[in-house]
Amino acid sequence: MKNATQVFLRRLPVTMIAAVVIWLLLRPAIDTAVAGLAQTLIRSFEYPRVTRLVVEDHQAQMRRTDLRTDSKVPSVSMTEVTFNTIVLLALYLALPHPFSRRQLERLFMGWCVLYLSQSINLLFHVKTLYAMGLGEWSQHHYSDLARNVFGFGRYFTDLPGRFSFPFLIWLGFNWEVVMKMLGIHEETPKKSKTKKKTTSGRG
Amino acid sequence: MNLRELWQKPEARFLILFLTILGVSFTVVALRQVNDAFVTPYTAVIARMSGFVLRIFGEEAVVTGCVVSSPRFAVTIYNGCNGLITSLIFISGVLAFPAKISAKLIGVIGGLLTIQLINLVRIVSLFYIGVFLPQHFNDAHIFVWQSLVIIAGISLWIVWAHKFALPQESS
What is the number of domains present in chain A? Predict the structure, then answer.
């Protein structure tokens, strides 16, 4: 197990570089996908449906169809929202057999969860702007409770979320692999055709 | 499986403790009183340390609150740039892991110092990227150094668990 830890740590710088390259290549698609899901979620609870999130130069521009055309368009940096994909990819690729079917399935599931968290982060950015950043309009359309809920959601999905979600997702989907690597995983007994032994290593 | 049985499984106990400590610590640092009394002064200390290192390198760095400025460039150290979030994730991992109190103490102190050292290198390097490659400052700041700091924190936790917290193997 100790060797597995050392191999993981040796691989990590290399997989980090690979993850940066993959993220840079996929960045336009990731930006569009995250903004698309965030827009769908926002419009699901919006009447009339006026929010449009347009990605330009890695910025999600918040365009409302009911705003004046000469209004300033606020935007959110998509780099800040999606950069943690690099961390998730680097951690996944550093594990043993990263391209086995099982690990690729786990990577896909983990990436889906991270994608959802990134979309929710963008949603909270937009809703916080609506609830707090548009002066009298915000005061009129949003309650203090809504301001607190959206502010709280934005805070938790911002720095704490962006920093900890890749680690938690990686740990959650690779629990037994990581615990084996660290040496605190208790092997679950496999079903065996042989007779049950009366002696065992652990009580 | 009831809660008691779940709690007796080391991996389940680790995950529950980790998430609880993480949630509580992030909530505590979000409180305005804690922010004013601890987070902002802490960030100012990081700024002063960065200014000190830059002056060693010959920069005419002046620190005002959380801003490190020189005639060549200026950086403002915000909450996300002070290493606190990475430190909290690391501490949560150390405290939740099944290990002796002494090992946890070594982990917390050693980890915090190492994360701050890495963060200091980050701030100084970003200052020089701002001086010499200002067009790459944002990219270096967000996706290169933030990813590096998170991965460094996770690596430190794995190293600590590997070196200090592994249960003794029976011979």
Answer: 1
A3: chain B residues, CB-CB within 8 Å: none
Least Cα separation, residue A47 to chain B (angstroms): 32
Q: Are A12 and A94 in contact (CB under 8 A)?
A: yes
Report the alpha-carbon distance of residue A92 to residue A156 in Å, rounded.
24
Question: Considering the domain boundaries, does residue A141 fall inside one?
Answer: yes
Residue of A nearest to B98 (CA): A184
Can you read off the two tokens belonging to residue A108?
């896909």
CB-CB neighbors (< 8 A) of B86 in chain A:
163
Q: Is the whole model's pTM more than 0.90, yes or no?
A: no
Task: Break chain B into its structural domains and give their ranges.
Answer: 3-165
Chain A residues with CB under 8 Å of B167 CB are: 183-184
Neighbours of B49 (CB within 10 A): 18
ipTM passes above 0.90: no
pLDDT by residue (tens digit) across B120-163? 999 999 999 999 999 999 889 888 999 999 999 999 999 998 88
- For residue A164, what are the domain limits? 2-182
Select from B79, B97, B159 the Cβ nearest to the Cβ of A9: B159
> Which one of B9, B11, B166 would you mutate to disrupt binding with A, by most A Cβ within 10 Å of its Cβ?
B11
Q: Does A91 map to a domain? A: yes
Planar angle of CA A102, A104, A106, nearest 5 degrees: 70
Each residue's pLDDT tens digit, B19-55:
899 889 988 988 889 989 999 999 999 999 999 999 9
DSSP state of A146: H
